Amino acid sequence: MKKVILLASGLLCSSLVLANDPTAIDSLINLQGVVISANKVQVNRSSVPLTISVIDREQIEASSESALLPVLSERIPGLFVTEKGVTGFGVSSGSAGTVNIRGVGQGNKVLMLFDGQPQWAGVFGHSLPDTYVASDIERVEVIRGPGSLLYGSNAMGGVVNIITRQHKQQGRRTQARVMFGSYNTQKYMINNGYNVGNFSSFVSVNHDRTDGHRPDSKFDITNGFANLGYQIDDHYKVTGNLSLAKYNTEDPGMITSPKFDHVMHILRGTTSFALENHHEKTSGALRVFYNWGHHKINDGYSEGEQPSPFLFYSDDHNTGIQLYQSFRLVKGNTFTAGVDYKNWGGHAWNDSIKGTIGEVVDKSVHEVAGYAIMQQDLFDILSLNAGVRYEHSSAYGGEWVPQAGFAIRPFEGNTIKASFSKGYRSPTLRELYISYLPYSKANPDLKPESMLTYELSIGQFLLDNRLHAELTAFYIDGKDMISVVNRQMSNIGRFYNKGIEFEAGYQVCKNLNLDMNYSYLYMNKEIEAAPAHKLYASATYTPGRFTFNMSVQSIFDLYTTVGKTPEDNRKEDYTVLNARASYRFGSLDKGLKLFIKGENLTATRYSINAGYPMPKATFMAGIDVTF
């Protein structure tokens, strides 16, 4: 038996000599890299007290996903994303794409960022999951806990900072991908990077479509993205980007109460400009951003009802300016100060063929903030971090946001972190001004939701950094939760969540990588889409030109419905098995790759959104060409 085990290990690890050389190991986890989400400037991940997960380009590319959120939902402990179909999340009632971190997220309590700039629909405050395109992303940094110190409102439960792609190497590189699969699902992608002298560009176009696994569940989307940069000199650089997405989605309704003609036509866009400076002892940036959307929604009708006599329209915007500068004037010290300004809101109305039925809302909110954060490294083993933010809103007044923590590295490969941070979320325009009588009445006197988070984590690298594990414990104390009381939006009671998160990765050898994560969550108030237990495990084997990946995700105690009484609550437990195989012709930079992947291979029946059963086993095959 020993000989068999040794032989199997030898076949899997055909390059054991390289495995013992740390320079030959290209870890898929990259947990030691620098991050920018913690202090607005590059710092080593092990020196900041916040719990930050990093998903790099290699992991995103290996998934062959066109959407980003499913990748995050698997690979980040404590983070869960709702889904309802083969592809596409949609908007309005019945939509998916809600991001929860540690049981906090519904109502846009997790802030989505493009290069540090907030992204959400200005009228209703919801995030925009279908616009987060995997091919346009270099890496993702996720703060698993409040990020309101640097990013303000809506970063109450956490931050997902999507860092867009720039073409940094000299020359040109073009990549194209075509995928076909179950339910007539088709995905097309082409991108091009170009770098000459001081100028760089990255441009991409994506198109996805599917018939859906249920009647009346079609979805199609076309995304375009361009990112341009120019290095003025050794100290200054300008960048600008533009992203556009146009999509159409059909919502079939709950399977027990199907809907007809529930169709949404969405146009979303975002653009930004930045002037960055980098000097020996200081660096910073001025960033200006603007994102907007136009929504046209037919709310549809159920069997026996009459079609809706009007359509819902909305135009929204989110505009802002960010100015920050970081100083390194004393050895081991970094001090960052910044100011933010945001104006968000929009216009919503109901319209019919015969004329306007009525205004819904036409409002905007102004927010201005200032913040400062300092980090001090001592004796190469201790990092102290503290900061404060003050934000003033035209809707509710002012809010103070403190944060403090430390990271200590007592011996090689070990990091211990502890932190205290506050997060908050401003009420949305819907909650402040839009009434859905007789269901709920708006309340212009709402206060922000807020919470305090305490966390402690221990991480350890072993075996020349090929093995890594990290354990995090957290406690959340929240107040002023916004909910409906007597048919009016109100601030109610307190809530608390607590739990643990564990992640580990092992680069067994050059061509075999194992990784897993697990999270446990306890909530004193049940909410939907936040599982008590979440487990993910994956193995990737790359013998020569082949790549094989198999992963499993198990979800337990996931509330899909929270009713007025415990008897009305509905929970789901499920396990899904996914696999992917590919073969590469040519080099990594230039060549052709054939791949096939299957999801939910055991055809598990389950729902994440109540009344929206997920598809059984699905398969996709494709060709990826790089030249």
TrEMBL record:
Q: Which compartments is it annotated to reside in?
A: Cell outer membrane
Q: Where is the signal peptide?
A: 1-19
Q: Which domain of life is it from?
A: Bacteria
- UniProt keyword annotations, A-Z: Cell outer membrane, Membrane, Receptor, Signal, TonB box, Transmembrane, Transmembrane beta strand, Transport
Q: Which CDD domains match?
A: ligand_gated_channel
Q: Which Gene3D superfamilies does the UniProt record give?
A: TonB-dependent receptor, beta-barrel domain, TonB-dependent receptor, plug domain
Transport as UniProt keyword: yes
A GO BP term here is: siderophore transmembrane transport
Q: Show where the TonB-dependent receptor-like beta-barrel domain sits.
A: 270-601
Pfam families recorded for this chain? Answer: Plug (PF07715), TonB_dep_Rec_b-barrel (PF00593)
**GO CC annotation terms, alphabetical:** cell outer membrane
Membrane topology is: Multi-pass membrane protein
Question: Chief localization class?
Answer: membrane
A GO MF label: siderophore uptake transmembrane transporter activity
- Where's the TonB-dependent receptor plug domain? 46-159
What family does the entry list? Belongs to the TonB-dependent receptor family.
- What name does the UniProt record give this protein? Ligand-gated channel protein
Q: Which organism is it from?
A: Parabacteroides johnsonii
